[in-house]
Specification:
This protein is of the alpha+beta class. It folds into five domains: about 90 residues, Rossmann fold; about 140 residues, 2-Layer Sandwich (D-amino Acid Aminotransferase, Chain A, domain 1); about 70 residues, Dna Ligase, domain 1 (2-Layer Sandwich); about 80 residues, Alpha-Beta Complex (Aldehyde Oxidoreductase, domain 3), CATH 3.90.1170.50; about 150 residues, no CATH class. The chain is built from 18 helices and 21 strands. An eight-stranded antiparallel β-sheet has the order 13-12-9-10-11-14-18-16, with helices on both faces. Strands 3-2-1-4 form a four-stranded parallel β-sheet, with helices on both faces. Helix 13 packs antiparallel against helix 14.
Length: about 550
């Protein structure tokens, strides 16, 4: 009898599972709540079912059982491992118990299992939406800073660092809005670098399938701008971290299937952020670990879901694979440049844009609102990292003008900001956690902030703007400063991006000239705030205004 597998999810993260199952001669039935899911067409059969609908998925499984049979059920890169376990348990298929899957899905239950087993993890309290009031915040048994997040969501949705009681109210409101069960967890903030781990578990034996360093930015949120596989941790530190992860897997009772963990290396030692009973999303299990090691954990996870021992889990090479994200300031996409050039960089294996022309974009507050990702792989670690970062810098996103969201982000028309910025940045540089969110692309020290405010803003000359005769007043100290934007571009590099995209020379002139429309303080403020995107938007908005005046 032909084997058949039910895979939950038809997104990009499930593509490896669908592809490998078909290569293994297994008929694929894929369910997803999105009828337009990107990988729906890859499956032998697609069913449009909400992955939260356990009973609907069970009914599908029973129908498959009664019509040719069903051999396995699995997922990868979704937060629906509990739905997988429900179907497997109800239909007598290989897997973990449903209650175990809940322990590995619900952060409250997870933390309690860790505490009972003595697995290092942060202290916590639970806040229910029915008890939460904007006028009263819970008393914390530990001090700030803390982390607030929903107990039952993934991708860092609704997750943020909180440094004061005042911030706690809004953070809880946000986290509860992302919780399907109306619960948020408030836990101790864990200081230190963060790592992701994947593992295959068969009959209680845990085989590690990747340990990566996560590049986290933009507090108070936890935005992963990429990961590097493998980590560069010394072996003894890596083994220490992995031993704590394995203890967490055992505490949750995951004995068959996959396990994905986020672990921090704190001053107190490794501490578990969370462990899920599935393979990771974020391109790790399906892309960077296979590229770096030659091992395909997705294929092994399919075998375990079938009740079979996994094979070929011993690495055949020791390369480095780096994944990096590219992001945007708020607005609407007008054009995307550089994808082909980025793909041509030696070592770049994949580019996954998540936006097209017309897509709305925002500065990310979680890991599902980024604009795309690039992945590299090379034998040399530094070369692989440079290839991925260079490719991310080559992708340029132009925004439509005018646009309310972009204008609000750039904030060019509020003169009171000049005084606020002067007071805030004149005498000191701010720590990351003190900076306003969303952060500016270039964080100017106080002296440069003052020089920016002293640049004049000549009156617009729309006839020169229409002809493309634009020049820029100087901000040499900024262009020469050792600053980088969100993707590591220097100010000079970003200015060249603006010149390339617009086709304008944009000469820097020491004083206003009758030959040009002069860009001054507003241009540089847009540049500092939004890098090349801010500068482009300012020019495009001026062009729009010039056309409108000329009608």
């Amino acid at each position: 009898m032909k084997r058949r597998i039910l895979i939950l999810g038809a997104g990009l993260m499930q593509r490896p599972a669908i592809t490998f199952a078909k290569e293994m001669g297994i008929e694929t039935v894929v369910a997803d709540g999105d009828p337009q899911a990107v990988c729906a067409g890859l499956a032998d059969r697609f069913e449009n079912i909400d992955l939260k609908d356990k009973e609907g998925l069970e009914a599908l499984g029973r129908a498959l059982m009664n019509d040719g049979g069903l051999s396995a059920v699995m997922t990868a890169g979704t937060d629906f491992s509990a739905s997988v376990a429900w179907v497997a348990e109800k239909l007598g298929l290989p897997g973990i118990p449903y209650e175990t899957a809940l322990d590995a899905s619900d952060k409250e239950r997870m933390r309690r299992r860790f505490k009972e087993a003595g697995v290092p993890s942060p202290e916590f309290i639970i806040v229910h939406s029915s008890d939460f009031s904007q006028n009263r915040v819970p008393q914390l048994p530990f001090s700030f800073p803390v982390v607030v997040k929903p107990v039952d969501n993934m991708g860092a949705r609704g997750c943020r660092r909180v440094d004061s009681e005042e911030e706690l109210r809004s953070a809880l409101t946000d986290a509860l809005s992302f919780s399907r069960s109306g619960r948020a967890i408030v836990e101790e903030y864990m200081e230190g670098p963060e790592f992701s781990v994947d593992a295959i578990v068969y009959q209680g034996e845990i085989t590690i399938c990747g340990l990566a360093y996560r590049h986290i930015f933009f507090p108070p949120y936890f935005i992963e701008m990429g990961h590097t596989m493998p980590t560069s941790l010394p072996n003894d530190r890596a083994e220490w971290l992995l031993s704590v992860f394995k203890a967490g897997v055992k505490a949750l009772g995951i004995t068959n299937g996959a396990a994905k963990g986020d672990v921090k290396l704190t001053p107190r030692g490794p501490m578990i952020g969370e462990i899920a009973a599935r393979l990771s999303g974020g391109y790790m299990s399906g892309w960077t670990y296979p590229y770096a090691s030659g091992v395909e954990p997705t294929r092994a996870a399919i075998s375990v879901a079938l009740g079979e021992a996994p094979k070929n889990l011993e690495p055949t090479r020791n390369w480095t694979s780096a994944e990096r994200a590219f992001i945007s300031i708020p607005g609407q996409v007008s054009e995307i440049y550089g994808l082909d050039e980025a793909r041509s960089i030696p070592g770049v294996r994949d580019i996954f844009p998540r936006i097209t022309r017309g897509s709305p974009v925002k500065f990310p507050e979680n890991n599902v609102t980024k604009c795309g990702n690039v992945i590299s792989v090379l034998p040399d670690r530094e070369a692989a990292i440079e290839a991925a970062e260079r490719a991310a810098r080559k992708v340029w996103i132009r925004l439509s003008a005018p646009n309310k969201e972009t204008a609000a982000f750039l904030n060019l028309d509020r003169d009171r900001d000049r005084d606020r910025d002067r007071d805030r940045d004149r005498d000191r540089d701010l720590r990351d956690e003190e900076r306003p969110f969303p952060p500016s692309a270039y964080m100017l020290p106080g002296p440069l902030q003052q020089k920016l405010l002293q640049i004049p803003d000549p009156e617009n000359r729309y006839e020169k703007i229409l002809s493309g005769a634009l020049a820029v007043l100087p901000f040499h100290d900024f262009l020469d400063a050792p600053l980088t934007d969100y993707h590591g571009r220097s100010p000079k590099e970003s200015l060249e991006v603006v010149r390339t995209i617009t086709g304008l020379e944009l000469p820097i002139v020491e004083k206003p000239s009758d030959n040009f429309a002069i860009l001054g303080r507003r241009f540089w403020k847009a540049f500092v705030r939004g890098s090349y995107q801010g500068a482009l938007y300012h020019i495009d908005e001026l062009m729009f205004q010039a056309v409108e005046r000329n009608r």
